[in-house]
## 1
Amino acid sequence: MPESVILEGRHVRLEPLSAAHTDGLLRAAGESRDTYAYTKVPEDREAMARYIEEALQDQASGAALPFAVRDVRREVLIGSTRFLDLDYWTAAPAWPAGRSVPRSGAVPTVAEIGSTWLAASAQRTPCNTEAKLLLLTHAFDVWGVFRVTLKTDARNARSRSAIERIGGRFEGIRRAHTLAVDGTVRDSAYYSVVAEEWPGVRAALEARLA
């Protein structure tokens, strides 16, 4: 199971999610819900507490590492994100040239970044870009993963565009993948960044934030 960590940049700080974040996240989620049609964002305190509890259960099992996202300039919570679907290969193949991060049961081999939502006031700002840069940097440079997956409801054009802007490469549509937030059967659009692509993706993200 990976250790909890604080990831901080100029715009955001990703803090290990805890029950103490409940009220702050509820305020963030209540700004406006116009962009949450395809995203699970709790509406009331009971739902938010349950959302956090379930995320922490996933963390305890080693499957996820959830964060609360804080705007460091305003010192307010603006949303949540997490590593999820963490997988630990017991017999990883040979590392590419120049990569020799040792494997251990505490270090994922592949990961996904998802369950991301931001308050309305934080959308279309540098916050999401920097949060993704912090997460990708930790995944590739600290854990040494082979791949980071990103996925979203295939209908969510806003989310798909955001993933493409940060450098995710479209892999395809997984049809009838899961139950959607609106209760329909969801097709999921899959994207990824692999280790060989990471230096270019990192440079592009840093340039966007400059």
## 2
Amino acid sequence: MEPSGLRVGVPRNYYFDHVDPEVESAVRSGIGRLEALGVRLVDVEIPMTRFVQGVQWGLTVPEASAYHEPTVQAVSEIYAADVRVLLEAGRRMSAVDYLRAQRARTLIRREWSRLMETVDVIAAPAVPVTAVPVGQEGVTWPDGTTESVGGAYVRLSAPANITGLPSLIVPVGEDRAGLPTGMQLISRAGGDGVVLGLGGAFES
């Protein structure tokens, strides 16, 4: 697929909030390279962002608990303590809470479907930080807020996971420590060929 003429959405919110400056710089440089390929950049507003984390955890934790339940009961020692805590939390979530998360997911999908009528692809960071040292448990941002490393790593992939939209990550460089940085390309439902074509053009 020729990238020329594709509308690439650049998020004004969510994806560049609480992102390491080196990651942001690499991704914005990658977006500039997309523009050099002939795409048209469009500023976009990501919808319903305040619900993303709640829906992500409200769905994945109980589903993971259900999937892993036989193994946890048979050989729980193979799971790290932090994983066991999440799996136990999932067993304690009510069906009402799970269905509430599913309803919110439906609303988020609907709003993303409207968003994707205005652009062909969204370009954004894949993760907010590069790989942290083994044993580091949290990330602290300049405004003083903190989040777990696991929470940070899934935060920017959550919208594509929730909506089921095709997403591709392409490398856009390395930080000062030589650790790789990725940019994700998200397209509308059924747009797998669009992100694969644009990713291929970007990499070549």
